[in-house]
Amino acid sequence: MAGIDKAAVVFSIAIALAGVGIAVAGDAAQNNPTYSAPVEATPKVSTETSKSEPQADPFAGIAEKVKSGDSMKEEKAVKLEEKVIMKDPKVEKPMVKEEKPMVKEPTGPTTHTVDIPVGTSVPGCEESNACYLPADITINAGDTVEWINVDTAAHTVTGGSPADGPSGVFDSSLVMADAVYAFTFDDAGSYDYFCMVHPWMVGSVTVN
């Protein structure tokens, strides 16, 4: 439509100019007998409808700005998330309270057990030092040792040695099967003992 309107305006102006030119030529011919009116070319009016140039979309720039704004927001959000996840090196680690190992308070006197094994009434246990189990024991002063006879034969727990005889410090006399003999060692030292019935049976108690 804009092309057609422009063509009509141009056509109207051309007609008006042609009329003015004819009037001026007539006046000149009347005033000057030698004047010859110029031949005026008829103005060409283009009947072709000019194609209107495609107009740019005024909202295209806004859309691009909105898209770029969204991408910038997403980028800021990612950066903010990275800042939240990253640890601040200036923040000190929380102090961890070190627990001190608990020191066991010294306990009172302890009772230790020594077995008189089955079959010790026959020689052979002395070869592996297994006539009393354990044959050698270490305790503290004030501790007690209990000898339990799990053999079927009777035995003794007598302080001393087969070579020197009884020391007189302790003596159980005969300990029958399944019987128990106990002795408390109050003084530090090393105490050897043996069985008077089966002299190959020997043991020792060390008192700290």
TrEMBL record:
Matching SUPFAM superfamilies: Cupredoxins
Subcellular location: Periplasm
Binding residues for Cu cation: 155, 195, 198, 201
Superkingdom in the source lineage: Archaea
Keyword set, alphabetical order: Copper, Electron transport, Metal-binding, Periplasm, Transport
UniProt-recorded Gene Ontology molecular function terms: copper ion binding; electron transfer activity
UniProt protein name: Blue (type 1) copper domain-containing protein
Transport recorded as keyword: yes
Cofactor note: Binds 1 copper ion per subunit.
Cofactors that this protein relies on: Cu cation
Annotated Blue (type 1) copper domain residues: 130-208
PANTHER family xref list: BLL1555 PROTEIN
Segments for region (Disordered): 31-55, 96-117
InterPro entries listed in its UniProt record: Amicyanin/Pseudoazurin (IPR002386), BlueCu_1 (IPR000923), Cupredoxin (IPR008972), ET_Amicyanin (IPR052721)
Biased composition (Polar residues): 44-53
GO cellular component, one term: periplasmic space
Major site of localization recorded for this protein: periplasm
